[in-house]
């Protein structure tokens, strides 16, 4: 089961992972289901993010800023694992995660 289908983003840059929040700030990119209208309004992914982390959070926050809502449905989604993520070595993945988090915090004014 996908352990992070979506979350709310806290002011300090982390997130809350509670199934008690069906409406969330973002939906994990591996489980997103969005219409063409959504993409027309929000745009595509920000290419300044490296592969793997936080581009889904940014997309969700941009959607929310435009008045769109994100929801996590029930039951949870089964996810077999990310193939694109497996192309990176652990050190590269850690670097991408850290760089993307720093960029997300700067872009959205998170601490």
From TrEMBL:
What SUPFAM superfamilies does the record point to? Nucleotide-diphospho-sugar transferases (SSF53448)
**InterPro entries listed in its UniProt record:** Nucleotide-diphossugar_trans
The protein in question is named Glycosyltransferase 2-like domain-containing protein
> Species name for this entry?
marine sediment metagenome
């Amino acid at each position: 089961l996908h352990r992070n289908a979506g979350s709310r983003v806290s002011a300090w840059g982390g997130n809350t992972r509670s199934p008690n929040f069906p409406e969330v700030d973002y939906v994990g990119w591996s489980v997103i289901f969005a219409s063409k209208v959504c993409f027309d309004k929000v745009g595509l992914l920000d290419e300044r993010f490296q592969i793997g982390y936080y581009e889904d959070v940014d997309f969700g926050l941009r959607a929310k800023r435009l008045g769109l809502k994100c929801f996590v449905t029930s039951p949870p989604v089964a996810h077999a694992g990310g193939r694109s993520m497996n192309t990176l070595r652990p050190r590269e993945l850690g670097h991408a995660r850290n760089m993307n988090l720093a960029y997300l915090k700067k872009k959205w004014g998170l601490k």
